[in-house]
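# step 3/5: fold
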Amino acid sequence: MGSGKEKEDEPLVSSTGLSIWKKWLNSACYLSVTRQTAFLDHGPEPGNLVAGANAVLFLVSESILWGLQRNQLHKLIESLLPDSSLPLLILACDTLGDALGDSSLKIIDRLNLHYVDRAKISSFRVIFLNWDAPLQHLNGLLKDECLREGLQWLANQSPIQPALRKVTTHNLVFHHLELCMESLSNMDDAVAPNHFISAFNEALDRSAEDIIAAANANHAGWPCPEIELLESSSSERRAMKMFCPCVGWSSASRIEPIISAIKGCKLPPISVDLSCLH
């Protein structure tokens, strides 16, 4: 994605509750999207702001009722896509950590983390930004190395995006049809027209299975919709269009019409006796 000569570590998008940062390493560009998600009494904000998320970061504070924080966290987890398997990092802003881990256990118990849906949350960790520091000397300052450690853990635990390759429906079906036709060439018995029809229909079924499997592998709904906020003329946006699928590519609204069209191409068997043609 480009030469990497542009300014590094700068925000491409910055607004209230949303930021998109880029990081160039050699000739590769990495985009980091951070979004604040607010919850109302009736649930998450419209638009499902957690779509495409690869990790969850949740701030806790001793100055806020733990019951309220617990409810907010579990609402957030409920809004995640099924089987998203994301890491959860709890950042304690004003709680002192300890070497024995008692403070971590208290927060885990208060948030009921042992009862979260493990299909949505694969792992969790508590990080204290005020680690082992006297309260009277904090002065509102947070320890940067603790935050870095937590974010590094979050990145390492984040699920890997599915490995995809660009292919047209025609080429996908043709690939499977070639394989099915090869099996016909190895048949000892005479090949009848219905054998070719079965091979064609099997190629369609295999193609549909490949498309469904690719969509099902995208548990988190990657890529996130926020990438569409990138400047259309930027190299990052052009690269996203070239090398990444469009937003929502694995959604049911995108996949089901394709599957329906493929299945609609299947041929019925020939019921007429064609033995006289041999």
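# step 4/5: annotate
Residues 1-6 have pLDDT under 50 and may be disordered.
# step 5/5: archive (pending)
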